[in-house]
Amino acid sequence: AQSVTQLDSHVSVSEGTPVLLRCNYSSSYSPSLFWYVQHPNKGLQLLLKYTSAATLVKGINGFEAEFKKSETSFHLTKPSAHMSDAAEYFCVVSETSGTYKYIFGTGTRLKVLA
Amino acid sequence: KAGVTQTPRYLIKTRGQQVTLSCSPISGHRSVSWYQQTPGQGLQFLFEYFSETQRNKGNFPGRFSGRQFSNSRSEMNVSTLELGDSALYLCASSLVVTVSTGELFFGEGSRLTVL
């Protein structure tokens, strides 16, 4: 069975400092992995996705994530945080096994301090 | 191109009533899925439809149901509302039809409050 664990429920960083949001996954098959962002009272927006191509994935707004199979991790990073990055971030896993099912992590709320 | 549209955006109901939420996917998207988001349980998958057929269902009671029309628009219905049904209900559409590798495009949600 597939699952995803976001290791931090809250992360605070100062503006201009790096961001690291951690995600570990469990999957019986080759997974597809995604990061989504949700701003208050809004729907979710895709930041980036991994689907068995390059292990380092670049997304929108300067975010990137690295797929590490040996560590079953897909951590999200950004070199320099901006105030507009304050939001909730979700790591998502799905399996390419024929079933249509996405499993969402519990979310990490990112706070950016001025 | 218009995004995913959900109506109504906000609604208040009382226990025991029923509610119907609507979702219009992005033009050309034939897969529509529904999620319930609450502070305690996070994002939970309700069900997914493709070409008017339910392909997958989450672990929700039978009070939660849905359907999809020939134009890909979808509705979900919750009967006999309970206080715990208060949540943000999100709809997402997707272009990829065979496996779950495609991007989900989300609407802004319908916020249901049950009193």
Compact summary:
With 114 residues, chain A is mostly beta strands. Chain A has strands at 3-6, 10-14, 19-21, 23-26, 31-38, 44-50, 56-58, 64-68, 73-78, 87-95, 102-104, 108-113.
Regions with little confidence, pLDDT below 50 for 5+ residues of chain A: none
> What is the strand tally of chain B?
11
Percent in helix of chain B? under 10%
Overall mean pLDDT of chain A: 90
Greatest contact between two chains: A-B, 26 and 25 residues
Helix content of chain A: under 10%
State the separation between the terminal residues of chain B, measured CA to CA.
37 Å
> What share of the residues of chain A does DSSP label as strand, in percent?
over 45%
Q: What average pLDDT do the residues of chain B reach?
A: 92
List keywords for this structure.
heterodimer; A: 114 residues; mainly beta; six-stranded mixed sheet; four-stranded antiparallel sheet; globular; B: 115 residues; seven-stranded mixed sheet
Task: Describe it.
The complex is a heterodimer of chains A (about 110) and B (about 120). Chain A has about 110 residues and is an all-beta fold. In chain A, about 0% of the residues lie in helices and about 55% in strands. Chain A has no helices and 12 strands. Chain A has strands at about 5, 10-15, 20, 25, 30-40, 45-50, 55-60, 65-70, 75-80, 85-95, 100-105, 110-114. In chain A, the strands form 3 sheets. In chain A, strands 2, 5, 6, 10, 11 and 12 form a 6-stranded mixed beta sheet that branches. Chain A is globular. The termini of chain A are far apart. The mean pLDDT of chain A is about 90. Chain B is mainly beta and about 120 residues long. Helices cover about 0% and strands about 50% of the residues of chain B. In chain B, strands 2, 4, 5, 6, 9, 10 and 11 form a 7-stranded mixed beta sheet that branches. Chain B has a 4-stranded antiparallel beta sheet with strand order 1-3-8-7, with no helix packed on it. The model of chain B has no long low-confidence stretch (mean pLDDT about 90).
